[in-house]
C-alpha cells in the first residue's frame, strides 16, 4: 500500500510539473507595429469627365521603398500652400529580405455634388504633385 501511495504522489508531482513548465509566457510579448511612410505616386489613370453625384474611379500607381511595403491609406497633405493627396504605405518593422519593389496600385474614388472643373492632386515627390483634371457637368 505504501508503494501505491508513493507512486500516486510521484505521478501527481510529475503532472503538476509538466503543467507548470508548459506555461507559455511568450504571449505577453507585443508584436511590433508596422511603420507608415509616404509613397510617391508615379501615375494616375481615370476619366476626365463625369456627372454630378456619380462616383469616378482612378487607378493610382505608387512606388514603395522595398517589396514588403503595402498600401495603407490615402491622406491629405499640404506642400507649401497647395493641398493635395498622398498615398501612405505600411512596412513591417522586421527586416525585409525582399529588396526589389514593384510598383503598386490602388483605387481612388472621387464624387462631386457640384458642377465644375476639379484638380485631383497626388504627391509625386517631396515638392511636387501629379495633377489630374476632371470636369463635372
Task: Give your account of this protein's structure.
β4 and β5 form a beta hairpin. The protein starts with a helix and ends with a strand. Helices cover 15% and strands 48% of the residues.
Q: Could you write a compact summary of the structure shown?
A:
Helices cover 15% and strands 48% of the residues.
List keywords for this structure.
single chain, mainly beta, 137 residues, 5-stranded antiparallel beta sheet, 3-stranded mixed beta sheet
- Low confidence ranges: none
Tell the overall outline: elongated
Ends: how far apart? 97 Å
The radius of gyration is 28 Å
Query: What percent of the residues sit in helical stretches (DSSP H or I)?
Result: 10-25%
Secondary-structure blueprint:
Elements: H1 2-21, E1 35-45, E2 49-50, E3 55-63, E4 70-79, E5 82-91, E6 104-111, E7 116-123, E8 129-136
Parallel strand pairs: 2-8
Antiparallel strand pairs: 1-3, 1-5, 3-6, 4-5, 7-8
